[in-house]
Amino acid sequence: MIDLQKLIRPNIREFISFDYTPKEKQERGTTHIMLDANENPYNKPYNRYPSENQTTLKEELAKLKGVKSKEIFLNNGSTEAIDMCYRIFCQPKIDNVVSIDPTCELYKRYAILNEVEYRPVRLNEDFQLKASELLKACDKQTKLIWLCSPNTPSGNILDVEEVEKVLNEFTGIVVIDEAYADFSHSRNFRERVSEFPNMIVLNTFSKAWANAAIRLGAVYAQEAIINIFNAVKAPYNISQLTQVQGLEALKHRYDIEDWNKILLLERKRMINAFSTLACCKKVYPSNANFFLAQMKDAQKVYNYLCEKSIKVKNCSNLSLCNNCLRITIGSKAENAEILGILRYYKPTI
Ligand SMILES: *Cc1c(COP(=O)(O)O)cnc(C)c1O
User: Fold this and answer.
1) What pLDDT, in 10s, does the model give residues 82-99?
2) Where does the Aminotransferase class I/classII large domain start and stop, copy by copy (predicted)?
């Protein structure tokens, strides 16, 4: 069992016990005359602060995902949730976190910004983790373990049994970033929130939900953890515009399913086509909306594509990714264009 009270940073623990606002903040509702928050009476409907608890959006999301509203915390994109995990659990200069390597670069970025030691543990050649190696890197100041599945830039799903081992044996918090889970049909950890009291799952509207512009993400965890996020969040943290568009996205979930079907077909087509390119050595299988390709000379291909006004991600600086490019699956037309251009690529020596 985990001791949540002991895992939280002392200042946050104190703040929560002394904070004058209750954990589940009151909705203001629409009373006849609202003169309590120094809002402007003009410019309806944008003059009022938005729903503090995003009740409607959370209820719709809860129905769709098969969890309780109280097991959801909404944020301005997973990027913010990553920062919040550090702020809630890690004492600067004292605590540390353990992470798989390579993975999403945001975990390291926010470790640095929060002055928390970051301990990357190298994955094996197939980008798989060994629970024992992650656990070996932990000590009593390790508060978080970062996992990402499907992982980026590799695109693979992490071995479920190894992840379960980490969840069962680590006495701190395990964060599983499932930003790309909706592109795969495998069982995800979000559906298993009730099993693991020390698990935080991150989802985002930016990828499979095709709403990166609105900056909306969701944390799924047991109520005790969600309460802490609610207590420390900025007041009115999700804008009215975002809440409205978030609901709209949920209404259009069948469009999104259709788009995802096309993207998965395109992924198959792109991976097959890339493996036949002269400039490409190896393509890794993917469970996400991108794939990793090892090139003969990634920098040259990258520069060539830049000249043609096509942007991909050069991952050569990441562990196990020497000469690798990460290519997002675009529209059919975009995919056809990059393939056409790469077929004409001639390496200059
Ligand atoms: C895109 C991405 C994020 C950031 O998501 P936002 O909700 O847009 O902030 C976080 N983690 C991973 C693994 C991602 O791919």
Assistant:
1) 999 999 999 999 999 999
2) 33-339
Atom of ligand 1 nearest to the CA of 148: 13
User: What separation, in Å, do the N-terminal and C-terminal C-alpha atoms of the chain show?
Assistant: 59
Does residue 169 share a domain with residue 27?
yes
Structure tokens at 135: 């656990």
Q: What is the pLDDT of residues 36-89, one digit of tens each?
A: 889 999 999 999 999 999 999 999 999 999 999 999 999 999 999 999 999 999
Over 70: is that where the pLDDT of 21 sits? no
pTM of the model: 0.96
The verdict on the CB of residue 203 being under 6 Å from ligand 1 is no
Q: Is the CB of 153 under 6 A from ligand 1?
A: no
CATH code for the domain of 318: 3.90.1150.10
Same domain, 295 and 318: yes
Please give the distance, rounded to the nearest whole angstrom, from the Cα atom of residue 80 to the centre of ligand 1: 9
- Ligand 1 contact via 142 beta carbon (within 6 Å): no
Q: pLDDT, tens digit, for every residue of 221-239? A: 999 999 999 999 999 999 9
Give 277 Cα–ligand 1 centroid separation in angstroms. Answer: 30
CA 79 to chain centre: 7
* Euclidean distance between CA atoms 61 and 72, whole angstroms: 9
Q: What share of the chain is helix, strand, coil (3-state, %, to 5)?
A: 40, 15, 45
Q: Which ligand 1 atom is nearest residue 81's CA?
A: 9
The verdict on the CB of residue 154 being under 6 Å from ligand 1 is: no
- Number of H-type helices and E-type strands within the chain: 12, 11
Neighbours of 150 (CB within 10 A): 25
The residue out of 234, 251, 268 marking a domain boundary is: 251
Paired strand residues for 97: 118, 144
- Which uninterrupted H or E stretch holds 280? strand 280-283
